[in-house]
Design brief:
Elements: H1 15-25, H2 30-36, H3 51-60, E1 78-84, E2 94-98, H4 113-118, E3 121-127, E4 143-145, H5 149-167, E5 182-186, E6 195-198, E7 204-207, E8 210-214, H6 216-227
Parallel strand pairs: 1-3
Antiparallel strand pairs: 2-8, 3-4, 5-8, 6-7
Amino acid sequence: MPRFTAPLLAPPSSEGELRARAATIAGRTLGEIASGLGLTVPSSLVRAKGWVGQLVERALGASSASRDCPDFAELGIELKTVPVDGRGRPVESTFVCTIPLRELCEVPWEQSRVRRKLDRVLWVPVQGEHGVAIAERRIGTALLWRPDEEQEALLRFDWEELSGTIGRGGIESLTAHLGRHLQVRPKAAHSRVRRRAMDAEGELSQTMPRGFYLRATFTAEILRRHYALPG
């Protein structure tokens, strides 16, 4: 395989061009990609949790600087890297988007951030075993996905249940155990970060920022269907 060289950073102009770029990084290590982009591989991902996703974004020419629209805004495609084990199964949940706590109850599912982010997704599997050095972890073959009717119905049900709880001032009662496929978890650099939200008495209070996450079981089923992985 020839040495990886960084592509032009202009966003891909078509779905075909995006697929072609994804094919150029499939099978390569994170170290190869980082070297081609002139970047340094971190010694640990504990304090650099978003590094792998940012690396793949740069390698593919993602255009969005805002979390409120898809990474490839012109194509309406979101990029999600998925760390997987040796059997191709996701090893963690997948961040979807932050939750606009004061706006959540004002929009229907069709206009929600979650639906916009998951309308079309380029899934990029990445080797995620902790026993493999970060620089030596390989990137898998990308999958361009759109939820079918059943998958969207499942996500919508969870979103409406979780959003309803938040809208009724129950944000503090939500735990990661709630939601069959979509869950709510804290999303902040540290526990001191706070956002304004409505409490159960209808009063404004300070709470940790939250985000919507896809459970690993949901993304595992997506990968299993496409790559014919064992259940």
